[in-house]
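Task 17 of the worksheet. Students: predict the tertiary structure of the chain below and write it out as structure tokens. Keep your answer in the requested format; marks are given for formatting as well as content.
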Amino acid sequence: MDYKYIEQLLERFWNCETTLEEEAIIRAFFAQKEIPEHLVRYKSLFQYEQTLKEAKLSDDFDKKVLALTEEKDTAVKARRITYTQRLMPLYKSAAVIAMILTLGNAAQKSVGIETDNQVCDYNYETYQDTYKDPEVAYNQISSALKLISESLAADSDSVSSDSVQQDVDKNKTTARIRP
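Model answer:
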């Protein structure tokens, strides 16, 4: 059998040039049981429309949907928002602004931009000694380092004695708790 007419209709169908009557002819052709092998691949496309027309909702579909919607609690529950939660966006924006300002100041100092008519000069070749006598400079540096050393030693002593005292207090309290 010659299927040239159906092939021409299919070509026109793919180009969106068919009329409704011609599309009905194509559907009727693919509704047959025996279709040529080179046209079998289009059969499911045209039968799909027919199966969609036959598909319907069950009679109890409306009842099921209504039952599902009525089961849910429709009351809206209010959430308590604390004062801290309300201000959280403000805290975040303040932190971002602080970081931007800090980075801006650091960049300003490292680049050497003028601030209050003072130029930050990081050119080491232009540095000049402020002391004419090296012995005076050495004495100044020594006294500064000695002060730093003493303050660090005092801090480490107070930290270590505080931690020892805390350990002793903890042992006393645990000794009292034991029967």
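Marker's comment: The chain has a mean pLDDT of 79. The helical segments are 4-14, 20-30, 43-54, 61-71, 83-111, 134-177.
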